[in-house]
Write a structure and sequence with these properties.
Elements (H helix, E strand, L loop, with lengths): L6 H22 L9 H35 L1 H19 L4
């Protein structure tokens, strides 16, 4: 489960939460100092929350499918890592 719920999802959720609190802060100011009206803040907050949830959900699905692909074809993953390592060695000019 740790590999499925990786840092990408955590970053997406953290950014969504950050934007949520920024908009709530801007709309909570009273009087002439109000930067964003309450109606605009509510609409934007709803947009941020929905888009964050959709993006996190799609990232979870992608991670789940990639983990399943790795479990189904572990040799391909190992082959890609070996190929990548050999390419790095070729670039650096190291002997195998």
């Amino acid at each position: 489960m740790k590999k499925i719920f990786d840092t990408k999802v955590q970053r997406i959720l953290a950014l969504g939460g950050l934007f949520f609190f920024i908009i709530k802060f801007l709309s909570s100011q009273s009087g002439e100092n109000r930067i964003v009206s309450e109606q605009k803040a509510e609409n934007f907050t709803a947009f941020i929350l929905i888009s964050t949830a959709i993006l996190a959900f799609l990232t979870l699905i992608y991670n789940f499918l990639s983990v399943r692909r790795e479990k189904r074809n572990p040799d391909k993953t190992e082959f890609k890592e070996i190929k990548k390592r050999d390419r790095i060695r070729d670039i650096l000019g190291e002997d195998k």
